[in-house]
Specification:
Number of helices: 6
Largest sheet: 3 strands, antiparallel
Strand order of the largest sheet: 1-3-2
CATH architecture: Orthogonal Bundle
Distance between the termini: 35 Å
Order of helices and strands: HHEHHEEHH
Helix content: 55-70%
Number of domains: 1
Structural class: mainly alpha
CATH topology: Arc Repressor Mutant, subunit A
Radius of gyration: 17 Å
Length: 151
Amino acid sequence: MDTTPDTSSETPTVPVFACACTSVRRTGRALAQVYDAIMAPSGLRNTQFALLSRLDQETPVGMGDLAELLAMDRTTLTRALMPLERQGWVVVEAGADRRTRQVRLTEGGAATREAARPLWRQAQAHVAMKFGEERLAALRQELAALAAIAR
């Protein structure tokens, strides 16, 4: 795969913010819009696909552990899981000691995620083509390092 970024179209300029948080959040929202537009035919938003994908790798998983892994508070995670639970794609159930909750991906959820995967790959390829595969790989490493220092 060609890893040279696409420079054939003019890239719009955006302001550079001094605040790291504002910059990362703006970039996250902009990327989410790209992924959501490409993934729209699947009926899944990028955030929902990410949750189903994480659960496909690790299920069942405790709500606290999942929230920590995704750097989300439990209330936000609970709200994000509600539409997935209504669709029957995940099950939220009591954990081992009844004080904890765990999340499990259902067969329907796994099938939905798998059906959406080609669109997610298309979104990934689009971003890699526009930004450059090597730059994108380096960015992912830098973002992981940034997330680690924020904990």
